[in-house]
User: Which sequence fits this backbone?
């Protein structure tokens, strides 16, 4: 049976002060072509924008350049076009936005909300103990300024000091909470190799693009508290969030590029869209349909009034 992505009646709009009209986005990492799982996320974000009369943007999250084969971002855009999923504005590329990320980091440093870290991964592993459920080491705050900083060693990375618990509402999953100090630890903003971390880049980009609603896969829900903490520190509005069910491989694990998920077969784009819609819990009419017909039918079924 297909998972039902439809949001609950409750909305987090009251927690999203400062948001304007609906602006959503699909933000793939171009480490490989779109597969069945990423198509579900793309379609859900497109449908939510269209059902609410909003705008839908595409952002290519190629901030981790070494993991992004040349031409993959352009190929993803061509896949979306073949599926009839056209953004309302020209796509953005994270690799061209480094100045925005640096400005945000400078603001955090000036406010005492970011600090240099000299720890190696081996040192963090030795001090942190077992990994948390999201697979990351919980950083123990070794280089926090109040603990002596880097102790004269050169900083390798920049970190955000966390404190307390973040509680938020997901339009599908309901009430969510995470204790950042015990489950995540002070997280990286700029990596030791000089690359920008996902958490900072996505927060800066969502604010710069005026994103009001983030619709993405459930595997990214665990990132949301970190992003809310950064939004609060930078004085940015909190978008509303909707995390969609994952498409699973035959072995029960998430279908992903890392486990060899095949690129979408676009010989019949309408059939691929129908499959994605059905995985979202939407019922498609019987019989052959064109791509516009599938999108129209799915949009009619997508709930209205849950995001505003």
Assistant:
């Amino acid at each position: 049976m297909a998972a039902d992505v439809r949001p609950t009646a409750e909305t987090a709009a009251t927690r999203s002060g400062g948001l304007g009209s609906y602006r959503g986005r699909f933000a793939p990492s171009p480490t490989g072509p779109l597969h069945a799982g990423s198509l579900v996320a793309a379609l859900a974000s497109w449908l939510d924008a269209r059902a609410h009369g909003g705008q839908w943007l595409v952002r290519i999250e190629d901030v981790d350049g070494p993991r992004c084969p040349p031409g993959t971002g352009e190929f993803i855009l061509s896949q979306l076009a073949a599926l009839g999923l056209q953004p309302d504005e020209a796509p953005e590329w994270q690799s061209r936005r480094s100045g925005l990320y640096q400005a945000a980091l400078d603001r955090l440093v000036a406010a005492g909300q970011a600090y240099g870290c000299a720890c190696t991964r081996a040192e963090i592993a030795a001090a942190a103990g077992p990994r948390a459920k999201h697979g990351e080491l919980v950083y123990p705050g070794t280089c926090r300024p109040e603990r002596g900083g880097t102790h004269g060693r050169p900083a390798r990375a920049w970190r955000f000091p966390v404190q307390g618990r973040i509680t938020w509402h997901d339009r599908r999953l309901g009430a969510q909470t995470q204790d950042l100090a015990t489950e995540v630890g002070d997280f990286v903003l700029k990596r030791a190799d000089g690359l920008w971390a996902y958490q900072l880049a996505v927060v800066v980009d969502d604010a710069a693009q005026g994103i009001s609603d983030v619709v993405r896969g459930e595997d990214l829900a665990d990132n949301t508290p970190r992003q809310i903490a950064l939004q609060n520190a930078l004085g940015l509005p909190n978008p509303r969030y909707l995390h969609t069910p994952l498409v699973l491989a035959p072995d029960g694990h998430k279908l992903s590029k890392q486990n060899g998920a095949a690129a979408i077969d676009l010989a019949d784009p309408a059939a691929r869209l129908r499959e994605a819609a059905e995985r979202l819990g939407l019922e498609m009419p019987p019989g052959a349909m064109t791509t516009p017909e599938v999108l129209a039918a799915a949009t009619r079924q997508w709930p209205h009034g849950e995001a505003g």
